[in-house]
Design brief:
The protein has about 140 residues and is mainly alpha-helical. It has helices at about 10-20, 30-45, 70, 75-95, 100-110.
Amino acid sequence: MYRDNPDSKPISIIITTLAAQAYQPGGSLKDAVALCLAGLSAFVVSNSDTVPNPVNPKENFADRWKMPEGEKDRLKEHFHLWVGQALQDFGKIRDLDGQRLVEHIEDCFETPTSTAALGIASAPAQVAAPAIVVSQPPRPWGSNV
């Protein structure tokens, strides 16, 4: 999404912190992604400028949003746009299957994959290893038999 504008991309610590706050253990991967996206979306709706560091709450991970350089790069706006795009992309991933899913994931994440890698196609049948028969095995050392 930010290939042509890397200075405006959201920083991962903000995404990670908000996703971790929304995460609930015990569900499926699908549930975990949905909860994380819901947490990111709720943060956008709140229009907050503060993402406190969980280890040091006095530190604001989003402090650059209000700095002149951050305002010039529209960091907060781009974070909101990124969350909206993530919601769209993962919503579409949820609704696709087979080769269409593979193509969408490759497009979104710019990485090659396959249906087998995604676990949506059965793996090729296992081929049994050939049997090896030794007709005249060597005798152990020191054996006179």
